[in-house]
Specification:
The complex is a heterodimer of chains A (291) and B (318).
Chain A (H helix, E strand, L loop, with lengths): L1 H31 L6 H18 L4 H24 L7 H23 L15 E3 L2 E3 L1 H23 L1 H11 L1 H6 L4 H23 L10 H15 L4 H21 L5 H15 L14
Antiparallel strand pairs in A: 1-2
Helix pairs in contact in A: 1-5, 1-8, 1-9, 1-10, 2-3, 2-4, 2-8, 2-9, 3-8, 5-6, 5-8, 6-8, 9-10, 9-11, 10-11
Chain B lengths: L2 H23 L3 H26 L8 H17 L4 H23 L4 H21 L1 H4 L5 E2 L4 E3 L2 E3 L2 H24 L1 H11 L1 H6 L4 H27 L1 E2 L6 H14 L4 H17 L7 H15 L4 H16 L1
Antiparallel strand pairs in B: 1-4, 2-3
Helix pairs in contact in B: 1-7, 2-7, 2-10, 2-11, 2-12, 3-4, 3-5, 3-10, 4-10, 7-8, 11-12
The chains are: A mainly alpha (291), B mainly alpha (318).
Amino acid sequence: MQEIVQYLFSGITTGAVYAVIAVGLSMLYSSTELINFAHGEFVMIGALAMVTLWVRLGLPLPVAVAGAVAAGCMLGLVFERFAIRTARNPEPITLIIITVGAGIFLKGAAMIVWGKDPFSMPSFSSHESIEIFGAALLPQSIWIVTAALVLAGGIHLFLKKTITGKAMVACAVNKKAAWLSGIPSEKMGVLAFGISAGCGAVAGIFIAPITMSSYDMGTILGLKGFCAAMIGGLGSLWGAFAGGLLLGILESLGAGLISSGLKDAIAFVLLLLILYIRPGGLFAAKEAKRF
Amino acid sequence: MTDKNKYLWIEYLIFACAVSTFGLVTENTYYLQIMTFIGINTLLGLGLNMLMGYTGQVSLGHAAFYGIGAYTTAILSGTYGLNPWLALVCAVAAAVLIAFVVGLPTLRLSGYYLAMGTLGFGMIINIVIREWDNVTGGASGFVGIPVLEAGSIVFMSGASYYFLVWGIVLAAMIICRRLLASRTGRALRAIHDGENAAVAIGINTHLLKLEIFMFSAALGAVAGFLYAHFVLFISPESFGFMFSIKIVTMVVIGGMASVWGALLGAAVLTLLPEVLHGFAEYEMIIFGLILMLVMIFMPQGLTQGIMDMIRTARRAKA
């Protein structure tokens, strides 16, 4: 019992990080139909920017977080402007290779800026761990889950309540129709890119204290994020969120109860199962495929 | 023999001459080694090109078949002492069988979903190789792969292996070309241009996609076999996600739907790391940039892109 609760806690913690990554990917996919293979690299940038701003420069926590998110967003926008929009032939396979190339580029750049050694980071608040059913709950876990909920809730409200958000949903549903009714669909795509990259950076910021951060941490996190988004249903915000949590919990239980070596395989086995049984994802209804 | 066929044979002849001249003239083992790797990668590119370039189905897990080929032959001939040539048959059979099992459900998907499905499959195979350490040697790799022999020839020195690999590449090229020129090849292109239309004229698209997937897996396994007996040491990193991406990039950069494109792509991507070796720190940045720039400005790949450039230059002159 105690062990299971412990696995659940750690599963929910990593699951919340996956959820934030998946939300970013899903958001981008639904408004631009682009799968960004460099998304994991934005997570890495968020984590390493946090190391520099908070640990090295000693900036106050909120400022450092804002700085790291801003760095992620800026990079995302630059990438959109110079790589995605200049592409002459925006076919899926071309875009896949472009984003993969961007991922390798960012990884290489980070290696030069931050070096090859991994960094550790203290948790955001240094309180003692809380004991529930004999299992330890770290304060950082509460931070992560709260941040994930606030972020997803914020994006939800943005899409449902603000005019800009509604315009973005309209673009996601039908770009041409949205354009005809006067919505600048290209600008909405740029905005989605910025938010998506920002989500990646947020995930990086919160994961930094619970794992080591290094220039090559992004790829596997990005892939796990895809799995989560696919499991939940690409293009559905809460589906991606739930997919992330589910993936985190199953991974943690699998690592604890079966074998820690096969932990990384769980995400991909789950992905294949979902693709075979229900390609739209667990939570995607047929009509409401997007948001 | 039609005119087109005659040209094809002339092409092959020129290619064979160029390859053998290089093999006979070069004595530098480093160059021969690089050329051998280009040949092995060409096989991989050819296989994926059949699937991606002609049928339009993206696979992000092709390195898995390469790994299956390499590890099957390594385990059978290294651990169990089976004759390597028999191990080759087993490796191809294993890859084809696994491709059948995986392809049956996966190839019903399309676009990004197929890409993600094959990616997941590739990752799983890689993790299995890494974790099954009492059979595969795990993360530290597999040692003790025997050297290839045929009668009195030992495929050891740079030149003999070079000729073996390029002989197989030439054979594979001819097989691919024959296949593409056949009824099957036309059906494949029909799938690429419009799957629904292909179904409407009575092509069993699912079966055909499955067959071509198995064919490309077989070529991948042959490449894996050649790789394993060439380097004599294999480890999981050589067959990971990044290598799958590299194979896709070879096909796309060289130019899809072109047999020579696969060769060009394999050559560029094999030579690039060698050329960039001096800039060790900047290798990744440069590699990423090249991928992006080629795809942004020459989405049809280098073969088509260079041809277009020549055409524009000619027109400008006239």
